[in-house]
């Protein structure tokens, strides 16, 4: 039972860390970020199982993470109030061609990164953008001016 409690605590810690990290960082992994995630995974595993190398410990830890992930997804799907807590909402970062500075700061996103995202979607300049929105998954949707 100790492994289940540690796995649940680790799940909550990882979930909170991923929410604090922000959406943009998760959608654009650099090599260092990927290595950091792997290291975090190893550290979490060590903290969850301690020195228990048994198959039972593995099943308990992975099972707990899986059950909590499915429960989180189900709660988000079933209850709108929980969705607001568990999932990030879309965030407008460009409105009528003008960057929304406080939203850019909240996402730790630069105007240059926004301009790059616009160019990737065949929009030459932020002046040509009606709306740019950081989606819950971290992607930037660009809606060009008509």
Features of the shown structure:
146 residues, alpha+beta, 2 domains, four-stranded antiparallel β-sheet, 7 helices
What does this structure look like?
This protein is an alpha+beta fold. The protein folds into two domains: 2-86, no CATH class; 91-144, bsu07140 like domains (CRO Repressor). 63% of the residues lie in helices and 12% in strands. It contains seven helices and four strands. It has helices spanning 2-21, 23-27, 31-49, 55-78, 80-86, 101-107, 111-120, and strands at 91-95, 98-99, 129-134, 140-144. Strands 2-1-3-4 form a four-stranded antiparallel β-sheet. β1 and β2 form a beta hairpin. The longest helix is centred in the middle third of the chain and has 24 residues, at 55-78. The protein is elongated. The termini are far apart.
Give a topology summary:
Layout lengths: L1 H20 L1 H5 L3 H19 L5 H24 L1 H7 L4 E5 L2 E2 L1 H7 L3 H10 L8 E6 L5 E5 L2
Antiparallel strand pairs: 1-2, 1-3, 3-4
Helix pairs in contact: 1-3, 1-4, 4-5
Q: How many distinct helices?
A: 7
Q: Which residues sit in consecutive blocks of at least 5 with pLDDT less than 50?
A: none
Largest sheet: 4 strands, antiparallel
Order of helices and strands: HHHHHEEHHEE
Looking at the structure, what is the overall shape? elongated
| Assembly status | single chain
Strand adjacency order, main sheet: 2-1-3-4
**N-to-C span:** 59 Å
Integer average pLDDT: 85
In percent, how helical is the residue content? 55-70%
Total domain count? 2
Range of strand content: 5-15%
Radius of gyration (Å): 19 Å
Summing up helix and strand content along with how strands pair, one would put the structural category as alpha+beta
SS elements, strand count: 4
